[in-house]
Structures
1.
Amino acid sequence: QEEFSQLGDTSRLLRLLGMAKVPAVVSFVGDLLETVEKVVVLAYHRDVIAALATAFKDFGVVVFQGGMTDDDKEIAVHLFQRPERRVFIGQRVAAGTGINGLQKVCSTCIIAEPSWVPGETQQLIDRLDRMGQEDDVVNAYLLYAQGTLDHVVVKVHDRKQPVVDALHGDDLLNGLL
C-alpha cells in the first residue's frame, strides 16, 4: 500500500487545486459569456463541478456527470440546446464520449481540470468539433495554474502527444508495411 500512497496524494492535490482554481475559472468563463452565447466547461472532480454549477446558476447551468441515469443525461443535453441555458458543465469522463448534440448550439469549450491523457482531451474537444457544428472554428481553452501540479499534468500531456500522433500517423504504418 505504501508504494501507491503517492497516487492518493496526487489525486487529493489535484482535487484541492481544482477547487482553488474555481474563482479563476468562473472569472474566465464570465468574460467569455460576454462575447459568446454558450460555453461547455469540463472538469473532473464532483466538488469542482458543484462549485462551478453554483457560480453559474444565473446562466441557466446544466450539469452532466457520472451517476446520472441515461435519461437524465439526455435531458441535460436537450436542456442545453435551449437559448436560456448558457453553461454546460460536464464531468470529463461522463461527457468525454458518447454524447452528441452539444455541437448544435455551442463552439466554445473550457477544460477546467486538465487530463494526463491527450486522447481524453481530444475526445472532450470533439464533443463540439463534429458533424453538425455550424461555426467555422471550435475554440478550446485548457486552463491550468502555472508552477503547480496542473502545470506538470499539462507538460506530461504535451510530452505524450507526439507519441500518440506517431502511432496514429501514416508514416509509421507505411514503414511497417
Note: The beta strands are 39-43, 62-64, 87-91, 108-111, 139-142.
2.
Amino acid sequence: LLAVIIGGYVAIKEAKKYRIPEEFMINLFFYMIPFAYIGARLYYVAFNWEYYSNHTNEIIQIWKGGLAIHGGLIVGLIWLIIYSKKYKIKTFRLTDIVCVGLILAQAIGRWGNFFNQEAHGSEVTLEFLKSLHLPQFIIDGMHIDGAYFHPTFLYESVWCLIGFMIIILIRKISKRKTGLITMFYFLWYGL
C-alpha cells in the first residue's frame, strides 16, 4: 500500500510537468490499481494452475499471498492504453509519466516480500549473507524454516531504486523522445 501511495504521488507530480491535471491521474489510478491487482492475481493463478485447479475456492484469497507483478503490469498497461485513447493523450507520454512512479513503487513493494518471507532466492550459508555486509535484520529475515536464502527482494529493490535514479537523470534531458522513459523502464526491469 505504501508503494502504491508513493508511486502514485510521484506519477501525479510528474504529470503536472506536462500540464496533466491531478484529477486526470487520480481517475486513471482509481481503475488501474484494482485492475492491476486482479491481473497480478490471475497471472499468479494461471502459472500455478495445477494447484488452483484443485483448490478453486482459494483463487480469490489474495490475503494468503500470490500476486505476480507481470500480470499487474499487463492489465495495468491495457487499462492505461484504453484510458489514454479515450482522453486523447499520447499513450507513451502517459506511460513515461507512470513509469517514474512505478519503478520507485516496485523498489518499495519488494520489501513486502521480505516481511512475508517469500520470493527469496536459493539457499545460501550464513557466512555468505554476512559477507554481503547486510544489516542483521535482513540476515535474520532470510532465515526461513531452518535455512538461509538469497535476499533477492533486496537485489531487486536496489536495482529498481538505481533505475529510478537513472530515470530522474533521463528526465532532465531537454529533448528526449516520448516513450524513452517507458523503453528504459522495460529494459531496466527486464535486466
Note: The two ends are 25 Å apart (CA to CA).
3.
Amino acid sequence: MIQVANNSLKCAPLGLQMLEGQHVSLVRSAPEYLEFIYACYQNDAFMNLYRLAQSRTVSKEDIQKRLEAEQYKLPQELNRIEWVILKHDQDQLVPIGLAALADHQVTHRRAEFLLGIPDTQDRVGNLSLEASLLIFDFAFNKAGLHKVTSFVYGYNAYAQKNTLHLGFKQEGFLAQHIYSKKGFIDLYQNGLLHADF
C-alpha cells in the first residue's frame, strides 16, 4: 500500500495495517492475542458456527508457535489474512471476535470471508456490520479482489440471513456436503462481487 502525506511517500506491505472503524478495529492475529484466540478455539458452540473444520485439540503452545511464525510472513505468502476484532471500549481495545479472508485465489481475485463474535452481548448493535464493512473495503478497494465468497452451514439460518442482508447472493446449496461429528451438513454458498459492494 502506498500513501502520500505531507509530500512524503510511505509504503507498507498490504494487509499488515490495522483496519480502523468508529466502534471496532481489526488487527492481524498475533501472539499478544493468544489467550483470546485459544479461548475461541476451545468454545465448541462458537467454532461450530465460525469454522467447523478447526481442530479443537490444538494446544495453546501450537497456536503460539503458529502466530509467532506467521507474524513475519505477508498475508500474500499465507494466502489468507486473519484478524482479531477489537471493540473500542473507552480508552481500550477489547478483543471480541475473529475474522478472516481465507483461501485467497490470486488468479481469480477472490477469497472466502469469515467473521464470528462469540459473546452474544457483543453481537447486539452494529459491531459485526462495521467489522464486515471494514473487511469488504479492504478486500475490494485495497487488495483488489473481484469477489468475496461466504460458506454458511445449513443449520445456521441466522448467519445465512445476515449474509444475504450484507449484499451477498446465494449461489448454491450443497446438500450434505460436509461430514462432522454432527453427521452430514448442508452448506450455503454465497458470493459478493466488487460491483455489488
Note: The mean pLDDT is 92.
4.
Amino acid sequence: MTDEIHALWAKGAIVVTYDPNSPHVPPPSRPARDGRVNLVEPGKAPRLGKGGSPESRVAILHSLAHIESWAIDLSWDIIARFGQVRAMPRAFFDDFVLVAADEARHFRMLAARLVTLGSEYGALNAHDGLWDSATTTADSLEARLVIEHCVHEARGLDVLPATIAKFRKNGDEASAALLEGTIYPEEVTHCAAGVRWFRYLHARDVEKKDVGEGGQCVDLADEGGGPDEGVVKAFHETVWAHFKGVLKPPFNDEARSKAGFGKEWYMPLTQRPTIPGAGA
C-alpha cells in the first residue's frame, strides 16, 4: 500500500493534499497489525547479543525489521494526524511520503535478508515500545517530530555504525553492506526531516519569522551562523516535556550534523536541568 501511494504521489496523481473545509478525522490510536509478530513486554524481547553467532545476527536483523515496520506506520500517522489540522504545506507531505517509502523498502530488504539467513520476519517475539512514543505525542506535531525523529531515529544513527561493524567483524558482509549502503544514509535524511519541520513550525507558529513564499520550508541553519537560539531552546523544552529519560552518549556527531543539528541541540540533554521551573 505504501508503494502504491508513493507512486501515485510521485507522479502527481494525488492533486489535493487535504480539504481545509472538511472536518479533521484523526487516525486510529494504534495502526492495524496482521498478527504476524507476537508482541511482548520490552524486557521479554529476545536479547540481541553481539553478532557473534548466526542466532544473534538474525535477532539483530529481526529487531531492525520490526522497527522499520513501525516506522512505516509512523510516517503515515504523522501525515494523517497532523497534515490537515496544522495546515502543513505540500512539502511536508512530500517529505513524509518519501520517508514512508524509504522505510517500506528498508523493511522489505531486511525481511528478505532474514529469509536468506534461514529465518523470517515474525519468527521472533518483538515489542512495540516505539509506538508508545507515538501515543504520548499524539497531541503535538512538534513533540512527534522531536521525539520520534530527533531522539529515537537519531539514536539509531548513534548505534548503526557499531552494528555494521558487528556484522562485518563476524563475516556477514551482505548485512553490513545493506545497513551501511542503504539504511544508514537514508535514516540521516529522516532525522533531517524532523529537524527541518520543527524549525518550520517554530518559525511559523512561535516566533512568526519569515518562512518563504507560499509556505515553503526554510532551513534556518542555512541563513547564517548556525541554529537559532530560540529554536534550540524550544527543542530542549519539547524533549523535557515528552521524554522521560536523558540522552546518552556516545553520539554520532557527524551523522547528526548532516541531519541538521549540532552538539548544542543534544549535549545539554544528557542531564536534566536542576533549576526550578526549567522544565524538568
Note: Residues 173-206 form the longest helix (34 residues).
